[in-house]
UniProtKB/TrEMBL annotation:
Residues 121-182 form the HNH nuclease domain. Residues 70-81 have a biased composition (Polar residues). This is HNH nuclease domain-containing protein. Pfam families: HNH.
Length: 210
């Protein structure tokens, strides 16, 4: 009940600052796969994105807790370290699949974002590119230790979905730490679509070396 209330409050607040539109239900899905919203200014977009991340983080944490509870009840708890796929499920960060695009429209900048869930592509990308940030090289495991940080990283879409991303191409995904992930989406405001594939390279060049 509390989660439903949080969802309603989030949606009502978001609609005040944008024209929130749910994506249509896809064949084989029990519900819509996300939503699209246009914001009139940067501040409204930032507030909406932060609220979205807060909500999805809460939902992901609750889902993980429920999954762990079911495993205990069913007697499926195993000793020792967990497998990579199991850890990925537990560590899934909802901000992985946020994609922002910037469109110039008159005097306003309109921002759109979508939330897409595709764990299989994420797993394929991380098997190929690893768990270090593609921009700064940060490793959650090295910094926080294996017990907390192993197999944890966000995933970034190089070419956003709204710009014609190939939905089944895992090579369009790259691992990114939380800081670089937020910064690269700010960087996209300055880039032309033709430069999106160089976004990580451009972001890396802006990082101040100690």
């Amino acid at each position: 009940m509390r989660n439903e209330l949080n969802t309603l409050q989030f949606v009502d607040e978001l609609r005040l600052n944008s024209n929130l539109v749910d994506f249509p239900v896809k064949p084989g899905h029990s519900s819509n796969c996300g939503a699209k919203a246009k914001f009139s200014d940067v501040e409204a977009f930032t507030r909406g994105l932060d609220k979205s991340l807060e909500l999805f983080c809460h939902q992901a944490e609750k889902s993980s807790q429920e999954k762990n509870t079911r495993n205990v009840v069913n007697g499926n708890v195993t000793s020792g370290s967990k497998g990579i796929e199991e850890k990925e499920d537990l560590n899934l960060n909802p901000s992985d699949d946020y994609v922002t695009a910037v469109v110039e429209g008159g005097k306003k900048k309109l921002f759109t974002y979508s939330y897409e869930r595709n764990n299989q592509l994420r797993k394929q990308a991380l098997r190929k590119y690893g768990y270090k940030c593609a921009a700064c090289g940060f490793s959650f495991e090295s910094f926080y230790g294996p017990e907390l940080g192993e197999n944890f990283i966000e995933v970034h879409h190089i070419v956003p979905v709204s710009e014609g991303e190939r939905e089944n191409d895992y090579t369009n995904l790259r691992p990114m730490c939380s800081n670089c992930h937020r910064m690269i989406h700010r960087l996209y405001r300055e880039l032309e679509p033709k430069d999106y594939k160089r976004a990580i390279e451009i972001l890396t060049s802006k990082i101040k070396k100690p």
